[in-house]
Structures are given as C-alpha cells and as structure tokens.
Amino acid sequence: MAIGNRPLISADSHIAETEECYASIERKYYDQRPRKAYADDALGAFIEIPGLDMKVPMGSLCRAGVPPEKWGVPVDWDELHPAGWDPKARLEIQNEEGVTAEVIYPSVGMAICLHPDVDYKKACFDAYNRWLAEFCETAPNRLLGIGMMACRTPEEGAREIQELKDMGFRGVMLCGDPHFEDYDAPSYDPVWEASVGLGMPINFHILTSRDSMGGAQVRGPKMIQQIVTIRGNQNIVMMMVLAGVFDRHPDLKMIMVENDAGWIPHFAFRLDHAWERHRWWMEVGAIQRKPSEYVHENIYATFQDDYSVQHVIDAVNLERVMWATDFPHGDGTYPESRKIIDEITTDMTEAQIQSVVYDNAAKLYGLN
Fold first, then answer.
1. Per-residue confidence (pLDDT) for residue 1, from 0 to 100
2. What backbone torsions phi and psi does residue 318 show, to the nearest 5 degrees?
3. Does the residue 77 lie in any domain?
C-alpha cells in the first residue's frame, strides 16, 4: 500500500554541530571546547574533541543524498549541506520530502558521550542544549529537540530533566555508558520518576557506548563494526528488563534509536527462553511478567530502511516502532524517503503504516 501524500514524522534525525555550538561553553573549558579542524585528505571536514582519542568526521558522516560509492571522497566544510545546522534550510528539506516534523539528535554529541571527564561532558552538553534550543525555536512543532544530559548524580539528573523540559525539549538523551553504577541500579529511580512525571521519555542512541562504538573487538573485516552497532542498545534493553526497572517504573518509556526493529521478535524470544529456564538458579531481578511483555510495552525502536520489519508485523508491537530519515547522515533515506517507505511497508495495513510513519512519534513526543 503506497503512502501517497500522507504526512511523515522522522523519529530520528540529526543536527550537525559546528564550532559555534560550543561557543557558550563554561569559561573554564573554553580553550578545550570541541572545534572545527581543517579538512585533511583522509577525513575531510572534522571536529576535534580534546581529551578524546578520535575525530568526528563530519564530512563523511553528514553525507545524505551522496551515493555510497562516493563516501570515500573527502568533503570539506563548505561542501556540507547547510540544512545540518541552518533551521530554515532544514525546513526546506522537510518540505521537499513531505516531512511534517523531525526528532533531532546530535552528531558530535554522540562521540562526546565517550569522553572520560564527566564534568567536561556536562559543560559540552549544556552548550549544545542552548544551541539546539535556538535551532528548534524556529519551528518548535517541526523541529523536536532531544536534550542531552550527563547525569552526574541521580538528583542532578532529575533536575536536568526539568531544565530540559523548560527549554522546550521533547525528551532526554542519555549516553550509553553511565557515570555511576549502571542504569538498572535503584539509585537511578529519581531520574526515571522525573522522566515519567514530566512526560520526558528517555532516549538511547546507538554509538554512544564503548560496546557499540569501537570499544568492542570484532572478528573479521572492519566493516563488521557497522553491523554490531546495535549491540550497545540491546545490552541496555536486556539489563533494564531483567533487572526489574520496568516493574518499579511501569510507565517509563525508553527509545532505542537507530538500531532497527526487525530483530526484536527473536530478541524477545531469547529473553523469555532464558527467564523461563534459568530464573530458578541464576541472578535476575524480581520481574512479574515475561520479559517480552516489557519489551513490547516499554521499549520503542526507530528504523530507516530495515526491510525485515515488514516480515515480523505480527510479532512486534507496531505502536512502538517508528520510521526515521536519519538526515543529514548518510545511512538515512534522503532524498528517496517516500519510495523507501513504500518498499518496506508493502505488507502493512493502512492503520499500521500510519502508526509507524506518524502517529507513534506524534503521541510519544507530544506533537499536537
């Protein structure tokens, strides 16, 4: 069934941070702020983050619409699409593809999640949030910002959620790796309570933890690293479900961003299989239902062109699955979003398509 001219919401798009993003950083970190570096022959345009042994290759990351066979060609700053940071240019791209709204995540901020200094991360995230809020103010019902939080303590994390809501954001993004304990610990309860009470869902994006961004060794060709990027989010889901977090907080909503959705049925089966056979003798949280029930109720997932989703329609909760463009990143669907949606929703009903490409995100992020 073709999607026609129906409105779309991208549940995962990005902003391309420029050097100006961090101009308002706390004064003590000003000289160590992330900054634009001159392009080189290998990476093209990139951002350097002091204290982090990596460069963020903006020239190769923000390549929406560029044919894959040209991804190895370095791109300089003046060749990047201005819609990555210019809200008016972004709205033009939305209009071009018939996208009503986008949920906006960082690009450089994903790498900053790996920085070892949590105080530095906090300073970067605060500057980023101010910059993103200004970007979204241009069209607050079309540019739906997700604020970043460092969560240095549970109490500060709860306050951060309130501050981000006051800034107009639609949810909060946590790094895949926590600063203290782990996210299943009861010490995080104030954070989850604030999320539920303020209607600010928790978002985990791929490539923000060391087990999904180069921290885990893979066997075989380096390309395999592009395939295992979803492991970090899968690990978070297993931990939160089996530790009983959703029993303590049944209304908590967590979004696993850009990790596709076709894998969910088998993943849920493996959780149930382990729980049904091994809970009698292995450590597990005090959960009252089958693990798969929490997966289908509390966990949301976004995808771009995952064709396997249409083959598991009856095995996932499609009210928790959301389509996305990933613009301006090269892994996304621009400029053929509608063609791709038609291809991956062939076996869905009219109501199912409407849920996946619009309604689910609109309800989750409070879009009137």
1. 63
2. -65, -10
3. no
Inside any domain, residue 195: yes
The pLDDT of residue 54:
84
Which amino acid is it at 102?
E
pLDDT tens by residue, 52-80: 988 899 998 999 999 999 888 888 888 99
- Rounded CA-CA distance 250/285 in Å is 14
Residue 137's Cα: distance from chain center in Å? 21
Is position 98 within any domain? Answer: yes
As to burial, measured by CB atoms within 10 angstroms (0-12 exposed, 13-18 middle, 19+ buried), residue 310 is middle
pLDDT, tens digit, 9 for 90 and up, residues 339-356: 999 999 999 999 999 999
Domain count of the fold of the chain: 1
Range of 171's domain?
Answer: 8-21+82-364
Query: Is 214 a residue whose pLDDT tops 60?
Result: no
Indicate which CATH number applies to the domain containing 233. 3.20.20.140
Contacts 24+ apart (CB under 8 A), 86-92: 87/135, 87/136, 87/138, 87/139, 87/143, 88/138, 90/143, 91/138, 91/139, 91/142, 91/143
Q: What is the pLDDT of residue 216?
A: 56
CA 278, 279, 284, 285 torsion-angle sign:
positive
Q: Identify whether 88 is part of a domain.
A: yes
What is the radius of gyration, based on Cα positions, of the chain? 20
Backbone angles phi and psi of 171, in degrees to 5 = -175, 180
Residue 204: beta bridge partners? 256
